[in-house]
Amino acid sequence: MKEVFWGMFLLTSIFWGMFLLISPATLAGADCAEYAETERMSVLDLQKKIVNEYGFVIYRWKVDGNCYEIYGKETIASGEEQRVEVYFDMATGEIVKKK
């Protein structure tokens, strides 16, 4: 019975140790510049740019720190759709990070 307890204790310790070693940078969003409210692109203008220029379909929109973030889909060269998570600069609407 003691062996089972110590085995489970060891597995649990390894799990939590690995969990705590995951870098916050790998879980973080994008690093966007900070802008005053008056310098930011309007949400409607950026949504138009995302759909018309980048070709993304937007399913979810949110503000993540100093970035606009979308969850959506894009059509790749083969014609298939793939899910995307994209961060945009609030002033220029440029893509900062895409997953």
3D structure, described in words:
By secondary structure, this protein is an alpha+beta fold. The protein has one domain (29-98): Nuclear Transport Factor 2, Chain: A (Roll). The protein is 36% helix and 30% strand. It has helices spanning 2-21, 24-27, 43-54, and strands at residues 57-64, 67-75, 81-89, 95-98. The chain is flat and about 65 Å long. Mean pLDDT is 83; it is low at 23-27.
List the helices and strands and how they pair.
Layout: H1 2-21, H2 24-27, H3 43-54, E1 57-64, E2 67-75, E3 81-89, E4 95-98
Brief overview, please?
The chain has helices at 2-21, 24-27, 43-54, and strands at residues 57-64, 67-75, 81-89, 95-98.
Question: Any descriptors?
Answer:
four-stranded antiparallel beta sheet; 3 helices; alpha+beta; Nuclear Transport Factor 2, Chain: A; 99 residues
Described by the principal axes of the CA atoms, the overall outline is flat
Query: Roughly what fraction of the amino acids lie in strands?
Result: 25-35%
Q: Tally of extended strands?
A: 4
CATH domain fold name: Nuclear Transport Factor 2, Chain: A
Which CATH architecture?
A: Roll
Continuous helix count: 3
Helix content: 25-40%
The end-to-end distance, rounded to whole angstroms, is 46 Å
- List the strand order in the largest sheet: 1-2-3-4
**What is the CATH C-level name?**
Alpha Beta
Radius of gyration (CA) equals 20 Å
Main pleated sheet: 4 strands, antiparallel
List low-pLDDT spans.
23-27
If you average the pLDDT, what whole number results?
A: 83
Structural category is alpha+beta
Q: What is the H/E string?
A: HHHEEEE
Can you tell me the number of structural domains? 1
